[in-house]
Each structure stands twice: as C-alpha cells, then as structure tokens.
Design goal:
Oligomer: single chain
Number of strands: 14
Pfam families: p450
Structural class: alpha+beta
Distance between the termini: 51 Å
GO molecular function: heme binding; iron ion binding; monooxygenase activity; oxidoreductase activity, acting on paired donors, with incorporation or reduction of molecular oxygen
Strand order of the largest sheet: 1-2-10-7-3
Radius of gyration: 21 Å
CATH architecture: Orthogonal Bundle
Order of helices and strands: HHEEHEHHHEHHHHHEEHHHEEEEHHEEEE
Helix content: 40-55%
Number of helices: 16
Family: Belongs to the cytochrome P450 family.
Keywords: Heme, Iron, Metal-binding, Monooxygenase, Oxidoreductase
InterPro entries: Cyt_P450, Cyt_P450_B, Cyt_P450_CS, Cyt_P450_sf
Length: 408
C-alpha cells in the first residue's frame, strides 16, 4: 500500500523505522520528492519541520545565526523534553552539540588542539597497532561465527578512546560500561546507576589529572580554563560525554556497517582488495551509507524561508542526515553502495560550526581497520540476520553475526 506524505513524516519520529532501512528510505525518498520541508505532528512529540534535502540541511547548518541547537537539540518524546535552555556556565550536562554561539566556540576550543589533522596523524601508528590487534583477534576465531559489533567493532573503538584519554587496558571494562553501545542494553534503572558511576569515575579522573597532568586528552579537559577559571564539574562531564558518544559510536557503527556492506556487495569488496578502488574513497562511502547520526534538531531564532516554506521563530526543524546522504540530486544512484564514488559530499559529520570535531579521527580509525583487514580477508559471510538499533538520534548495527576466514 502506498505511503502518504503525512505517514512518511511521522516515520521520522518512529524509532523502529531506523531499524527497517527499506521503510525508512521509502519515507525519505517520498519527502524529498514531494515535501522536502514538511510539517510533522507525530503522536507523543512536539511538532517540527522535517528537512530532508541535502541543500536544505546544509543551509540550516550553515545559518547558525538563525537556527539554534537549544532548547531542543535532539528529537525526544514531549514528556522528556526539558523546558528552557539552561543558563550560563552552570547547570545540566550540555555537550557541544547542545551549545550555540560564543559558548559553543569556547567549549569547542577546549579539546580542538587534539583533533587537528596534525594531531590526529600523529596517532596513526598507535591506531594502526590497535587495528592489527583487532584483526588478529578475528583470525583467532578462524571460521567461527563472530558477533562483530560487540566482539570486534566496539572493542576496537573503545581501544582508541582509551588511547586518547591516556588510560590503559585495565580500564576497558569500566569505561566500556559508559559507552552508548553498552548503555543501550541496560534497563532504565541500570542506566541511571551507570550514569552515577560515570560522574564518579570521570570526576575522580579529573582530580587525578589536575594533580598529576599528563600528555593526554583527559589532562587537557581537566586543566582547561575559561576566563581564567577551571571548568566546573558539569562542563568537565559534558566534555567526557561527547567523547563517549561521538568518539566511540561513530567509528564502531561505521566499521560494522562498512563490513556488512562489503559482504553484501562482493564486487565492491573485490575492487578494494585488488586495488581497483581507493580505501579513502571507500571510507567516505561507508560513512555515507551508514550515517551514524540519524537526526538532530534546530530551533528557529527568527522567521526564515527555507525551500519556499516560512519557518517561524520558535518552530523546530529536524535535519535528516540519512535523507541528505541519499539525495539523488547530489549522489548519482544514491541507494547503491559504491566504493568507487568520488567527491563524496556526505553530511554524516554535519556542516558549519557544528561539524564534528572528531571527523578526522573517525576517518582514520575506519581506514586503519580496513587497511589491516582487507589484505588478510579471504571471505566474510553473514551468519545470521543483522539487527539495526531502534533510535531517533544515533545508531547503526546492534548485532552482526559474521563468519570470517583470514590469512595468518
């Protein structure tokens, strides 16, 4: 039965739709074609404008003077949406993605020096070692069914996170509990208890790095000053939250989704293994294909016309990244996974002032993993139904059983 535009709009507020890619992309294709800026009133949510074309998503991101992150930075049921925008430097945890203007600029600068191209390039040898270790562990399971997300991708991404923070492998079990991937499988009461543990752990780490600073990202955060003052507890914890959210999940879900795409498109895998395609281009295609962040929200500060539609001050917009990354006006044959695709203008890392600070690091992690895997990969076979996460914000594969044969 054909889907209506109204049904397509409501789909964007349905977490189960993001676990059903056929259904999701039917809705997004319809919205881009017939109502690229569409008013949506989903049950249980405050209404919003759905923005689905690549050019319009870029326009909203570019106009940070018009479209603000606060007070509604992500789509959530109406009953859970906090009122107000917070105030000043004190208050609830507010990661970078929730901040605007001068406050965003100041807090982004806290860790920016660690994510410059030069700083990221300096990490390549250590990340290469982590990637080779991950592939060695896969080889140790030669021919067995491996749940790739939990056993490989999450572990590899966690290793890079520990490297950044200056923590050794003995901290992996503790820090791993704080990652979004681990918290998703917890009951609500467990998540609450885990967040309390997160506060305790990272405030203790901050105190340690203030007393004994090292050359690591934890020390940078602990000893950063704004207007001559050390960051308060909420600001420190907000910095660590974004590291755990973006620093772990982006690489993990793209590595997993990238391998699934290669197993489902053996011709693309062959092109990478025999050198007919360039790995950096393939990494960009994996990022476009997976699009880890599904949607973010912005709120209009003043009236603004977008694609011929007047958005009024105070109205919210939802930016659909999976839709922008399948826009046929930008990506020829957008529903085809193509490792030969060049000049890839994917928007998975955002655009403008909120462009992901760790984008270069994520690319490096993904590239080094596949650089380690592909020369040794004899075969990869999906060994059970892959399962996608239900979400309206960030996600990808939840389960991916795979059987790999690797060269020793």
């Amino acid at each position: 039965m054909p889907m209506s535009v109204a049904e397509a709009g409501v789909t964007l507020a349905d977490p189960t739709a993001y676990a059903d890619e056929d259904r999701l992309h039917r809705a997004l294709d319809l919205l881009r074609r017939e109502a690229p800026v569409h008013w949506v009133m989903p049950p249980g949510y405050h209404p919003f404008w759905a923005v689905t074309r690549h050019a319009d998503v870029r326009e909203v991101e570019r106009r940070s003077d018009v479209f603000l992150s606060g007070p509604r930075p992500m789509l959530a049921p109406a009953r859970t949406v906090a009122s107000g925008t917070g105030g000043g430097r004190k208050g609830l945890l507010r990661p970078l993605a929730h901040l605007d203007g001068a406050e965003h600029h100041v807090m982004r600068a806290v860790t920016a020096s660690r994510f410059t191209p030069q700083a990221v390039a300096a990490l390549r040898p250590q990340i290469r070692d982590l990637a080779r270790g991950a592939v060695d562990r896969m080889a140790g399971r030669q021919g067995e069914v491996c749940e790739f997300v939990g056993e490989v991708a999450d572990v590899y991404a966690l290793g890079v996170l520990l490297l950044l923070l200056g923590l050794d492998d003995s901290e992996a079990a503790t820090v791993g509990r704080f990652t979004p991937a681990a918290r998703r499988s917890m009951a609500p009461e467990q998540r609450t208890a885990t967040m309390r543990e997160f506060y305790t752990y990272f405030l203790a780490l901050t105190a340690d790095r203030r007393a004994r600073p090292r050359d690591d990202l934890a020390s940078v955060i602990a000893n950063a000053r704004v207007d001559g003052q050390l960051l308060d507890d909420h600001e420190v914890l907000s910095q660590f939250v974004i590291l755990l959210m973006a620093g772990h999940d982006t690489a993990s879900v793209t590595v997993a989704g990238g391998l699934l795409a290669l197993t489902e498109h053996p011709g693309q895998l062959s092109a990478l293994r025999d050198g007919a395609a360039r790995l950096p281009d393939a990494v960009e295609e994996m990022i476009r294909w997976v699009t880890p962040v599904k949607a973010i929200m912005r709120t209009a500060r003043v009236d603004h016309a977008l694609h011929g539609v007047r958005i009024r001050a105070g109205e919210a917009v939802l930016l659909s990244y999976p839709s922008a990354n399948r826009d046929e006006s930008v990506f020829p044959d957008p529903h085809r996974f193509d490792v030969h695709r060049t000049s890839n203008r994917q928007l998975a890392f955002g655009y403008g002032v909120h462009h992901c600070l760790g984008a270069s690091l994520a690319r490096l992690e993904i590239e080094e993993f596949f650089a380690a895997l592909l020369p040794r990969l004899v075969s990869a076979t999906v060994a059970g139904p892959p399962v996608q996460l239900t979400t309206t914000f960030s996600g990808g594969l939840k389960l991916f059983p795979v059987r790999c044969v690797l060269k020793n």
